[in-house]
């Protein structure tokens, strides 16, 4: 089993780049945010029930909850699996526990990648995000606009701005991320496992840099 982790602030493009890596390799892209929302849709999921109040306040779920989710994903994926996590770990505690989890499961960390961009870039990207009410496809007014403004290319649904992306919430999310990520980044950096990636370059270029590490 191999796991790689993609770190970076909201707006750094983790989802896009993780998807590009998955297309070009046998790594599976697992967005833990998406996995939590799936759990929340399942009425009997203990993780989903416990996560709801945090997600509704745009807060990160506690370490124990994130770790329970990730452990379930790794165990289910099985021995030969290769997984690229996007949205996990978010704290140093989660990173340390991922190391022990992988050790227990006979796996290894294939790489840790930090997508870096200036705050001004992140704010512009986050505030420009619009998602389709119908199918969930995400567009960006600045760098990935729909053909017709306000209308989804895929299903003609209406494009709306998520509450998370309102100006006041963008500032809150970036601050929250910054506080949690500091120790996390140091944990991977000081153990010599961190690769820094320029998040302002073409996502395909970033994906190529990640592939060069995980394929060795
Ligand atoms: Zn749509």
Overview of this protein structure:
This protein is an alpha/beta fold and 216 residues long. The chain has two domains: 2-117 and 168-214, 3-Layer(aba) Sandwich (Rossmann fold), CATH 3.40.50; 118-165, no CATH class. 48% of the residues lie in helices and 18% in strands. It has eight helices and eight strands, in the order E-H-E-H-H-H-E-H-E-H-E-E-E-H-E-H. It has helices at residues 14-23, 32-41, 46-56, 63-77, 92-104, 119-127, 167-190, 203-214, and strands at 2-8, 28-31, 82-86, 108-116, 129-132, 138-140, 159-160, 194-198. Strands 2-3-1-4-8 form a five-stranded parallel β-sheet, sandwiched between helices. A three-stranded antiparallel β-sheet has the order 6-5-7. Strand 5 and strand 6 (138-140) form a beta hairpin. Helix 4 runs parallel beside helix 5 (92-104). The longest helix is centred in the last third of the chain and has 24 residues, at 167-190. The chain is globular. The two termini are 15 Å apart. The relative contact order is 0.20. Bound molecules: zinc ion (ZN). Zinc ion is lined by residues 132, 134-135, 137, 152, 154-155, 157.
């Amino acid at each position: 089993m191999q796991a790689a982790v993609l770190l970076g602030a909201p707006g750094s493009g983790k989802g896009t780049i993780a998807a590009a890596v998955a297309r070009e390799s046998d790594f599976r892209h697992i967005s833990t945010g998406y996995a939590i929302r799936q759990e929340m849709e399942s009425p009997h999921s203990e993780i989903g029930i416990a996560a709801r109040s945090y997600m509704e306040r745009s807060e990160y779920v506690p370490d124990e909850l994130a770790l329970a989710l990730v452990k379930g994903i790794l165990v289910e994926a099985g021995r030969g699996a290769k997984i690229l996590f996007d949205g996990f770990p978010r704290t140093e505690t989660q990173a340390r526990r991922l190391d022990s989890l992988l050790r227990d499961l006979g796996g290894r960390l294939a790489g840790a990648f930090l997508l870096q961009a200036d705050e001004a870039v992140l704010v512009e990207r986050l505030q420009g995000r619009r998602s389709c009410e119908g199918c969930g496809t995400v567009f960006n007014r600045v760098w990935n606009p729909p053909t017709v403004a306000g209308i989804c290319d895929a299903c003609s649904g209406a494009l709306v701005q998520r509450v998370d992306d309102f100006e006041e919430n963008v500032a809150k999310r970036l601050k929250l991320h910054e506080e949690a990520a500091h120790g996390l980044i140091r944990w991977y950096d000081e153990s010599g496992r961190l690769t820094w990636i320029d998040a302002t370059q073409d996502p395909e270029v970033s994906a190529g840099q990640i592939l060069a590490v995980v394929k060795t």
